[in-house]
Structure formats: C-alpha cells, structure tokens
Amino acid sequence: MKEITAMSATAVAKKIKEKELSVLEVVEAQLNAIKEREPLYNSYITITEKEAREQALLIQKLIDDGSLKDSPLAGVPVAIKDNICTKGIKTTCASKMLANFIPSYDATVIQRLKNAGAILLGKVNMDEFAMGGTTKTSYFGEAKNPWNPKHTPGGSSGGSSAAVAAEEAFISLGSDTGGSIRQPAAYCGLVGFKPTYGTVSRYGLIPLASSLDQIGPLSRNISDCASILEVISGYDPKDETSINQVRYTYREALVDDVSNMKIGVPKLYLEEDLDKDIRDCFMGAIKTFEDMGAKVEVFDLDEISYSVQAYYVISCAEASSNLSRYDGIRYGHQAGDYDDLDELYKISRAEGFGYDVKLRIMLGTHMLSSGNYEKYYDKARRIRSLISRSYEDAFKKYDIILSPESLTTAPLLKSKNSPSTKKHRSEILNCSVNLAGLPAVSIPCGIDKKGLPIGLQIIGSLFGEKSLIQAAYSFEQTKPYERPGTLID
Amino acid sequence: MKINNDIFNNILNMVKLSCTEEEKKQLIKDLNKLVGFIDTMSELNTDNVEPMTYIHSTRNVYREDIVNDSKEDHDIHANALEIKDGYYVVPRILE
Fold first, then answer.
1. Does domain A2-259+402-478 have CATH number 1.10.1240.10?
2. N or C: which end of chain B has fewer CB within 10 A?
3. Over the stretch A235-275, which tens digit does the pLDDT of each residue have?
4. ipTM beyond 0.90?
5. CA trace torsion A159, A165, A167, A169 (10° rounding)
6. Contact residues, A window 90-129, toward B, CB-based 8 Å cutoff
C-alpha cells in the first residue's frame, strides 16, 4: 500500500499514464490507507468511497482513449475541504448548522478537477466555518497531526493538511482567509499555496470573508502544487472577482535557479522572539538562498504591524454579513420549537453555530453598527491600504519576501486556545498577505527538537506566482520532502 | 466604549441569536477583550489614506442577457425543511 500512497501526485499520475498502475488500484490503495489511519487522525468528515470507485472506472476509460493526455492529474485522488460545495455530497463547513446540507451544484474548482480527471476521495475536516487555527471547533471532532497525534494539524484547513501528510490523499484543497492553508501546511511539513486574490474562482466556496478568501492546494512537493494550481486557476464568469489572465502555466516555473533573484527579509521578523529552532531554520533558509546565488537584503516593513487588528475587523465584519444567510428556513439547521419567525431565526442560529462563530458574528456586527463604522471598519480599511501600499513598494525592490510561516510549531491539542501576544504576532505573518491580496507559499524548512515540522513562508507580488514556484522549487532541491516518521506502513 | 449588557443585547438582536446567561457572560468578556485589542489600531495615523475594500480595482461587469441553466428548483428545495407548491413554508407573520 505504502508503495502507492507515499508517491507524489505527479508521480502517481505518471504511473497511471504509463499503465503501470490502474486508477482503481490507486483509489483502492488510498481508501485502504484512509480506513486504516482515520481512527487516529480524523482528517475526513465524509469519505466518498462508492463515488470514488465509480469515478475511477470512468476516468480510466477517458485516460485509455486519450481524452485526458494533457492533464497532470488524471486519475489522482484528491481530498476537498468541507467548505467547498460538491454536488450531491454533504458539505458541512464542520458545523452543526450545515451537518446535513447537500449542495445542488459543484464549486468551479470541483468542476475543473473533475474535468482534469482527478478523483474526489471525500470532504476533509476544518474549524467551523473556517474560523480558527486548530480544527478544535469542528462539530465533527478535531483532526490530529500525523507527526504527533497529540498536536494540532493546524487550521482552519487542518483536515486538508492531516490527510495529505498522513498519505490519506495525494493532494488536497484548502481555503485561506488569514493563513488557513499556509499554517496547517507548515504544521504538517507540507507545501501550502495561497494564490493571488482572484486567481482561483470562489464560486461554490462557502464564504467566510469574501474580500480575503482564496482557495489553494496543500501537497507534498512544489511540483504537485504547480500542477493542481494550473488546473484550478482561471477566470470564471460566476465569480466576478476572478481575474482573466491569458495563461496559467505554473509548471514552466519549476526551474532550479534563483541566481537572479532579489530577496527581501522584513526586519521585524528577525526581531521577533522566535523559538530557537525556528530562528535557526529561518536563518539557515536565508543562507541557502544566498548560497544558491540570490541577493538577500533586510528591510523595514513596519506598516504591517497593525495587520491583525485590521484583519479581525474586516474578516469579522464580512463574516457577520455572509453568515446572515443561515435562517433555518431555506437550508441548514432548523429549530424544533419556536413561536414565531423571529424565534425561528434566533433559536436555529443559536443551536446551529458554535461559540467561536457566534463571537465573530457579534464582533463583526458591532464593528459595522451605527457609531462604530468609521472608528473600526473604515479605519481597518485605511490600514489595509497602507499595508497593500508598503508591500507594493517592497516588490519594486524585491522579487520575493521571506518570513517564518509561524512563530511556533504545532501546539498541543490540549493547550488552551487563548489569544496571546505571540499568537497575534504570528498572525501578522499570515493575514497581512491576505489583506494585500498577495500570493504566498509555505514550504517545509526543517524539524524542531520536538520532532515537529517548521515552515518557511515565501511571499510574492500580485500575480507573482511563478517567482514563488521557482524559489520554492529551488529550495526544495536542497531539502526534499520528509514523511512523518510515526506513520504506520 | 466597553460592551455592556444593553449594547450586548442590541447586537444579539441584530445578529438574530439567543444565548444562555452563562454564554452571555463569556461572550461579553471575550468581546471586550477583542475590542480592547482592536482599539490599539487607533495608534496608527491613517490621515489622508483612502479606505480599501478590494485588491483589484472595481469595475462594472456586463454580459449578454442570455438564458442559461439555472439550478433545478427541486434540488435547491431538497435542503429545506418544508416546501409547499414550490414555496418555502415559514411561520405566519401577518394576522
């Protein structure tokens, strides 16, 4: 089984293409791994076993008759975060509110994956409505980190990271509003890519904060990541914030060369009280880039210091508006006992939403309410302008920016989820990127003394995906993928 | 301004939620903690800075008015608790 499931997505696609493996063989191996490991990791909310087998036969025919010869992912099983709509398959957002919700349509990314011949394995765990960084708020129980099940796999795309690291999927999709792809990827030793806002259609992504949300992949190497990005990117008339670009040929950027690159390192990340292991790995990564011929420079980027405050205001304001659609009538949880319409709304929502969701909805509405709008929402949007502008200035000088992905490695699941200054500062690294709409990737850059992976974040300019891929690919040549040592074979 | 009982009840009504006394105490405590943190952003001078909502410039999107596949009513209604003659059933709102 391991011989198949431990392969990369592109390697397994090649074996399928060359008829060394059948799609069904690959799907069966993957389903076996899921069955064996799920009791330990709880990565999945729904496993689409029957559909995956049916799909395997269908895709095999299309591969055999040559219809999918240009697809890099034909026959490759993928896992999908459970906030991305899948026709006829439960899409729960890890919430009691949507525990029985079955979409009547596919998200655009699902349609694109299906057209490319990818096989849907199931829907993976997350924090409720993507609000959190641990999966602890999932209505279906938390997911576990394959490197050490006592630790969180991160979040909110924690099922997406756990599934790929545990080899329960070759590749997965997550969504990133303030770091929700990159942080879980870092915690599980994976590649996690958040594309430029507008690169991937959000049609069918259940929204958290519409001006920040972006779908992206988690994978075990950068080549897999580039392949799936090519499949899911592109303009979609159903999402008018998606951008029309001529070509999304990310695989062309899989080139081992950074000799002409100028790299910026924001001073504030060097001043942070990083864990020693994280600091050592980060400094080591900078040296690796220098050794490969890149020019690295430290610069000031202090304008992003207030990113987290602005992010809380904007993301909660947008979430409070987006989540007003759950009324207990058209779909979602409905209260059993109520006297009038107002009570039906209030009880359905009180029963359907978990604590963190309620807290964020209330905070967002408070920020938008009369008398507060200017002080909070408007102020946050002005700070967003400043952040965006300072990144824009930085990218006049640099091709990419480097930072640690997180100030810590994966915390223990039982540790208290209280806001700390260190956590807030860690969030700056992530959410400033979403506020500015930039692309960023987290790639593995080492292991700490607890045996947990450390992530390196590479940030690019708007639509600078190719520079990110080239830098990440070059770095990966010096540090190939490591699978969790604890995985049972 | 601190979120007191009155402000809290007003927000609770606006967001159409209900909560227990215990939950209320915790929510007020957590909301005030978050607001206190958010308030620190007033330290940053943003005079003469325009607010920004979307990264890419907003533009009008026009398209031909062509009839295409819309969702089957049947599929969409399948998630509702009660449907009558193609309509959602809600509690009476007019006497």
1. no
2. C
3. 999 998 999 876 789 999 999 999 999 999 999 888 777 88
4. yes
5. 40
6. 100-102, 104-105
